[in-house]
Amino acid sequence: MEQSFNEREAIEWIRENWYKTFLFSVAYVILIFGLQYLMKERRGYNLRMPLALWSLGLALFSAVGAHRTWKHMVFVLTTVGFKQSVCNQLFYVDPICKLWVYLFVLSKVLELGDTVFIALRKQKLIFLHWYHHILTLIYSWYCYKEMLSGGGWFITLNLTVHTVMYSYYTVRAVGFRLPRWIAMAITFSQILQMAIGIILCIFLIFWKEDEVCLCTWPAISFSLLMYLSYLVLFCNFFSKTYLTSTQKLKGE
Prior knowledge:
Blueprint: H1 7-17, H2 20-38, H3 48-79, H4 82-87, H5 98-110, H6 113-120, H7 127-146, H8 151-173, H9 180-207, H10 217-251
């Protein structure tokens, strides 16, 4: 199936339908805040098993996708070097990972379902969560339709982090208590991912004029602003969740 997948038709379809990410985003916001309003006077649902299965499915998908994209990335790194791994657009059409890159893009619509569980279980919904889901969806489709340089690293790192993150969610959903440092490590890995994204954007600015590194100022600006906003929000989340709360506990 990987070999027979027609990536050119897929890219063309995304180019024709990219605007729908904005429609998905509007529908998503209406749904989640509508659910929160409906659940205001009701008890939250347990949903442990559905959430465990949901998280397990996303963890397995991310693991397979990470395996395939890393295989291509390692090949490029060991044959033509780091610069080509950033600038190379073959990532989107390579027989090894082209199917998984497309599925990754589509999966950003599916991942919006994470928030439905939060609303139905009456858990705290923070700005970072839904902002991150919306912007990642829009950016992923934009990245794919433009075949952006740097997209290979963005997708590979995201799949890698999500493999660990959704595995953690699966274990938590079935009722196992895990050490606090694991959650801290996952959040730190997300922060590291955003920092790497910013560094890659800086490289793209310097390499923009090279014939091998095809990217535009709108694409670089979009990427840089997204990663910067994520870095600030994740650092703030890490500080409030793990550092400030720890200090409060010590104070008590």
